Amino acid sequence: MRRAYMDYNATTPLRAEAREAMVAAMDVAGNPSSVHQEGRKAKALIEKARAQVATALGADGADVVFVSSATEGAALAMAGRGLAVADIEHDAVRAWGVGDPLPVDRDGRVSVADPAATALQLANSETGVIQKLPEGLWLSDLTQAFGKLPIAFNWLGCHMGLVSAHKLGGPKGVGALVMKRGTDIPAQLKGGGQEMGRRAGTENVIGIAGFGAAAEAAAADLADGAWDRVRTLRDGFEARLSEGLAQMGEAAEIAGAGAERLPNTTCLVTPGWKGETQVMQMDLAGFAVSAGSACSSGKVRASQVLRAMGYDDEAASGALRVSLGPETTEDDTLRLAEAWLAQRRKRRDRAA
């Protein structure tokens, strides 16, 4: 059985460019805080990666603070700020929100009253829905958009943004908080004063080097139209699902279909058919997909994102997320569509 990986919003395969940069960094022995030659070589790798991430994100002139993950970055940006958030946010952001959740419409779009006191993602990991960010926003989670959409931090109008290496072909365990130069933010990890005094601790030189190389390669892929091809595959996949369901007298329910979405994401809602069951059936058929955010899909519960969009618990528990990548083929998507439709027919026949 030839397996097909279609869970790119959870994590991405390590790029060859990132692997090469990481292997080279393993031979650099110095501590980047040391002033001798070995230390300076390690520091140079970090600064090279900082520039690569900034350029790829359109954040030249901004401060790029390396952290262990976007989750850590969210804590650094949000602790003590009293920010409003919506229930569509990743748990790492939602955990820091205060007050009533921001309103969300049926297509997953959020209404913001006070941008300066709000954190709002640019794109959702479960539905792919893209938000229109208001000017003056305090923080935006850019992890799903970075590398998939032609964005520039300097033009988004937000003070800070979160990014993560493993969402665009880099290693797990490294991310960055990007902020307008001069933004005053106290360190949560205190000690040696690394990362411009905003995040203490000896830097993960190997991971950071991989992040920089991955960001540069991801930007090149985007410029070459790789994600336009992915969008074509995604649209064809959804069309085949719609066609197959119509033959059964059903209609496909794609969460967020009325909004602008990431080019690779389909969130298929089937009330009464548990998302976890669908994932296991597709796994046995050779396909890696998910029932929602990888950070919470291991917990059997209704999707908080879909509930915020107005779906009831039965529907919010019956979601399947398919997220494609540049390595996905048309054959992969068509085989997945046929495998899913076959399982849907079996379920209908048993219920008849």
Sum up the structure in keywords:
352 residues; two-stranded parallel ribbon; globular; Aspartate Aminotransferase, domain 1; single chain; 2 domains; 4-stranded mixed β-sheet; Aspartate Aminotransferase, domain 2; alpha/beta
CATH class category name of the largest domain: Alpha Beta
Mean pLDDT: 94
Order of helices and strands: EHHEHHEHEEHHEHEHHEH
- What percentage of the residues does DSSP assign to strands (E)? 5-15%
CATH superfamily of the largest domain: Type I PLP-dependent aspartate aminotransferase-like (Major domain)
- The CATH topology of the largest domain turns out to be Aspartate Aminotransferase, domain 2
Uncertain ranges: none
Structural class: alpha/beta
Number of helical elements: 11
Provide a brief overview of the structure.
With 352 residues, this protein is α/β, with parallel strands linked by helices.
Structure in words:
By secondary structure, the protein is an alpha/beta fold. It folds into two domains: 4-9 and 225-351, Aspartate Aminotransferase, domain 1; 16-223, Aspartate Aminotransferase, domain 2 (3-Layer(aba) Sandwich), CATH 3.40.640. Helices cover 37% and strands 10% of the residues. The chain has helices at residues 16-25, 37-57, 70-78, 91-94, 153-156, 205-223, 226-247, 275-284, 304-308, 313-316, 330-351, and strands at residues 4-5, 63-67, 137-141, 158-164, 175-179, 265-269, 287-288, 319-323. Strands 2-5-4-3 form a four-stranded mixed β-sheet, sandwiched between helices. Helix 5 (153-156) links the parallel strand 3 (137-141) and strand 4. Helix 1 runs antiparallel to helix 6 (205-223), helix 2 packs parallel to helix 6 and helix 7 packs parallel to helix 11 (330-351). Belongs to the class-V pyridoxal-phosphate-dependent aminotransferase family. NifS/IscS subfamily. Its cofactor is pyridoxal 5'-phosphate. InterPro entries: Aminotrans_V_dom (IPR000192), Cysteine_dSase (IPR016454), PyrdxlP-dep_Trfase (IPR015424), PyrdxlP-dep_Trfase_major (IPR015421), PyrdxlP-dep_Trfase_small (IPR015422).
